[in-house]
Amino acid sequence: MKQEEMEIVSWREMKKGETLQGFFSVALPSGLRLIDLTYHKRKDGARWVGMPAKSFQKIDGATSWVPMVDFSGKTARERFIAQALQALDNYLNNRKPSVNEDEESSF
After folding, report:
1. Sequence-ordered list of residues with C-beta below 8 angstroms from that of 87, at least 6 positions apart, any chain
2. Which of 17, 14, 49 lies closest to 34 in space, CA to CA?
3. Is 59 helix (H, G, I), strand (E, B) or coil?
4. How far is Cα 91 from Cα 49, in angstroms, rounded to an integer?
5. Which 8-state DSSP code applies to residue 61?
6. How far is Cα of residue 98 from the mean position of the Cα atoms in its chain?
7. pLDDT tens, per residue, the chain with 107 residues
């Protein structure tokens, strides 16, 4: 990994609902690792990354999610997502599929 690039350290395909394609983890140049980011893609081609979040149950019984990581602003978020999508594209285009991909560990 180049000093200024993020690295994909794991990928787990999991197609669910209308957009979820899978989960991935990244190592940042600082040494920080983010686990279980989500990769989404709509039928119209729009793509995005969801940050790690934890679920909780609302008073009415509905499940909701709260982010575990946040950004200082819109520009930082957009820059991170663009870098993560580029890194994920590179990873998926250059990887050799494993036999037990669903069991792949983040570390």
Report:
1. 5, 6, 7, 8, 26
2. 49
3. coil
4. 15
5. S
6. 19
7. 555 689 999 999 999 999 999 999 999 999 999 999 999 999 999 999 999 999 999 999 999 999 999 999 999 999 999 999 999 999 999 977 655 454 444 44
Residue type (1 letter), 34: L
Question: CA nearest 11: which of 66, 91, 85?
Answer: 91
Q: How many CA atoms lie within 13 A of 104 on its CB side?
A: 21
CA 11 – CA 91 distance, rounded (Å)? 9
- pTM more than 0.85: no
| Range of the structural domain that residue 50 is part of | 7-96
Please indicate, yes or no, if residue 101 is contained in any of the structural domains.
Answer: no
Residue 20 within a domain = yes
52 closest CA partner among 39, 69, 40, 71: 69
Q: How far is 15 from 21, CA to CA, in rounded Å?
A: 4
- The angle subtended at Cα 83 by Cα 40 and Cα 78, nearest 5°, is 75
Of 28, 20, 29, nearest to 50 by C-alpha is 20
